[in-house]
Amino acid sequence: MKISAIVTLKKEVLDPQGKVVNQTLKNMGYKNISDVRQGKYFEIELDEKDPIKCKEIAEQICKKLLSNTVIENYKINIG
Amino acid sequence: MKISAIVTLKKEVLDPQGKVVNQTLKNMGYKNISDVRQGKYFEIELDEKDPIKCKEIAEQICKKLLSNTVIENYKINIG
Amino acid sequence: MKSSVIVFPGSNCDRDIAVALEKFKIKNQMVWHNDANLPKSDLVVLPGGFSYGDYLRTGCIASKSRIIDEIINHTKKGGLLLGICNGFQILTETGLLPGILLRNKELKFISKNVFLKVTNLDNNFCHNYKKKNIIKLHIAHNEGNYFANNDLLKKLEDQNLIAFKYSDRNGNINDNTNPNGSSNNIAGILNSEKNILGMMPHPERMIEPLLSGEDGSLMFESLFNKK
Amino acid sequence: MNISNNLIESHGLKKDEYKKIVNLIGRKPNLLELGIFSAMWNEHCSYKSSKKFLKKLAVKNKNVIQGPGENAGVIDIGDDDAIVFKIESHNHPSFIEPYQGAATGVGGILRDIFTMGARPIATLNSLHFGSPEHPKTKNLLNGVVSGIGGYGNCIGIPNVGGEIKFNSSFNENILVNAMAVGLINKNKIFYSKAKGINKSVIYVGSKTGRDGIHGASMASAEFGENAEEKKPTVQVGDPFTEKLLLEACLELMKDDSIISIQDMGAAGLTSSSVEMASKGKIGIEIDLDKVPCREKKMTPYEMMLSESQERMLLIINNGKEKTAEKIFRKWNLDFSIIGKTTNTNNLVLNFKGSQVANLPLSSLSTDVPLYDRKWKKNTLPKKQKFLENLEKIKILDCLKKILSSPNNSEKKWVWQQYDHTVMGDTVQKPGGDSAVVRIHGKNKGVALTVDSSSHYCKAFPLYGGKQVVCEAWRNLISVGAKPIAITNCLNFGNPEKETVMGQFVECVDGISQACTYLDFPVVSGNVSFYNETNNKSIEPTPTIGGVGLINDLKNMISQNIKGTENYILVIGKTAGHLYQSELYREVIGFKNGPPPEINLFNEKNNGMVIQKLISKKIVKSVHDISSGGILVALTEMCLAGNIGVKIKTPNNNMTLHEYMFAEDQSRYLIEINEENHENVSKILKENSVHFDIIGKTQKEKIELSNNFSISLNDLKMLFSSWFYNYNKV
Ligand SMILES: Nc1ncnc2c1ncn2[C@@H]1O[C@H](COP(=O)(O)OP(=O)(O)O)[C@@H](O)[C@H]1O
Ligand SMILES: [Mg+2]
Fold this sequence. Notes:
Oligomer: heterotetramer
Structural class of chain D: alpha+beta
Strand content of chain D: 15-25%
Structural class of chain A: alpha+beta
Largest sheet of chain D: 7 strands, mixed
Bound molecules: adenosine-5'-diphosphate, magnesium ion
Number of domains of chain A: 1
């Protein structure tokens, strides 16, 4: 089964990349952009058919490896 | 309106980050992971209510800035 | 010989390259990225560093700068353009050179001396390397892994557009002499007209014996004695 | 709002301290004021436990332009050039978020340097991790190293040196100490002391966000089980913005716009405004509506306590506002006039039309409580008779074991992740005794080193403190430099414990004795207490950053052996001290006993003689003998030069193990060629320096007569692989 995870910086935390992208888009003429935040995206292929188990594994690896919950949040998608 | 975009490396391009994540997960004991690909995620706040216009802008900025279409694909989500 | 070094926010090898150009009697001036006009120059240099923090993709945001159109014009008229490290990354992002620089295969920043084989000696940047075509230069990058698909690689090889390849001290080129995973060990390439060179190693950091080598000097001598 | 006991405690203030606050201001503080007190009165900002003892350090001599008390120390290196440098800890944040914690540590110390008007020319770092087997270590190591690299590489300042050690006492409290060095014209130094009334107070750099609030208090509170809970107090650094801030500040500093300037480090806007005004003995008034904020609806409390990175506070001359604004806008930075200096001697904060805080500045600076904490004297451990029969263990096996151990193996894996050649002046790279950075455009250079020896300090703090200073001194001497001054970062456990305080007091005493005797003053530094988790504290770890001057780079020397058929001499007396040595600790696992003692007379005398030999150009290479003893030091020289050696041990009454692995202090190895032999011996004798001739250089192999022979290639493998194997995915 395929699972995917999105890891983003917490709202209170500075996102230097998003800031620069935002500024660049403005310079390129996109005046109506008010905010950009950049995060990471992971696509994971699992040899596991049970979506509940998949979800469980995804939770674990997000917590243990893919994100640092000090400064980041994550969101999981199954299938 | 909020739009989001996911930018991923094309299949034929080597993804060293994904490869390392994959290997690390295996070392951590997750044996049933067969592939990991890593990409970028963007969350963009637009001062624009019309979803069609949003989609159009999103397409433009993905093409012009957020992805390098030589090696990357993008996917857009509105709302 | 007159040169212009373009300074982007986050450039950090701009002073180093200016020092090197001046040492080899090339009259240089610094040009701010937001200037609309490029002063008259024979050579334009895009220096190393982290323009815009290398955020999003390396070189990407600098490639949208105001001065870029002027630089393209300069090259269309046959002017020389040299991109070192981040400068190379900017060149691929603008499309002035083909291919792209990905993260190093080990995902680590690499700062070390490497050996290179100069594989094209017939251009204004490298002709002095006829004296010595296996050289030592310093690399310092996180994204130096040159990627080109097979068609492009074939073209680069067939048309002899590869300027430098990572090698060992004897000129052997193989996986063991590839520090960052680049396709075919490519460390620098030329455009078809050979007036644009993009390279990851830093010639400006090896211009005197005290700095662990002088092999960079030959490039500046080549430029000064432009063919 | 009522200030409850709970609230007082959660601000890290003791009951008595709160009473003192009420007394000082003659009323109860409001919540914002309480936050300000908590930031200014905590250990990190106030030095309330350490101040009494830091006063004992030697801080002056003819080279010192600015000692402790400013953003960084400044020393004179001739021709109007001066060097600005300081070291600082970022221990707790790096444990919680290794990449960002270490990165912002580098960012913070760089700001301390360019705040004074100096262009940073180098960074160094000292890192201590838990044991390699501990489950957290690998991740912490990788995160910290890439964080340091990520910040320094991006901003483009070479990282030229450091040290990295592993020891289980750091399992739950790693140490990340970052040092930065800058170059300045000695007539153009900028200070933080405010001057003049009604001058504009200006905020520049990044916007203020909700990150790092309480960071300063966090750094002063012992970790408990729930350290993970404190997470959101870590800040994310933006080296790109720092680079812009650096260039913008240096651009504005070209003329006389700035009266005083201070970076916003720990406790952000609070400590910077308080420090500037109180040093100038004036008042300051800030309009918080003018503070550039990253998020909507930020409260005065959040603005004053935020530790968002890459921000500066400036006080500028009347009429210069426009000039300043133009420069900061060009560099795409936030710029805002947020207040003015006043004659009230108070800190006054206004927000949305009303006054939200009004505190006498003295209550936040001079009236901060100072403690004379109880401390316990340390006793010198006994030299217990060591039972194991050392003769059974082969010398070569000992060498191999030490060379391939995490603490003694080559650190290339680390420093190749740092750009160490950018700026084009790195003339001696990482890997040697000290790095050497040339003064741009000139033929002179500064030598730089950082050193610590936590297990010596643990065994007997007085000797340990002395030893680190001497080790830094020796490292500078070994590259041909004249040692000038040091900075220090004192990493200890909880000062409220008598044993910890005892370690601190006696380490400082040792440092003080050594730097006084060697005329090697302390010009800046930092104290990090509360490096302790669940009651277990780290080994006491003073880190010394040393700076030396090489007046003529032709006199620079390195440790790599230069040729075959040359003599190798051991300079200084070997007595066979093995307690606390790598042989005992790494090979045998014996960790008791006293650390080696330092004789300061010999230290200075030996060092001066080495200097003399170098300036007479009659030595080929020099290396100080430190952890691992003679054989390890000699192997390092051979590997660096790719030349072997045939060793012949001198006659003495020691065992071979004692001679080869003892860690007696104040010793060096030198390489000389045959024709200088007589001359060198004569100089050494004239100066009463003991020396042994221990061998001759040769091709390819290291040999010890009748004992072992091994190829350099085999040794190189052992020396260079540990980090790569450990970090293999
Ligand atoms: N161990 C020490 N030895 C000497 N000076 C010290 C020591 N610790 C701190 N200082 C000095 O005290 C002053 C305040 O230090 P600190 O609060 O760390 O500075 P900052 O405000 O830049 O963080 C600095 O001038 C520093 O050099
Ligand atoms: Mg400071």
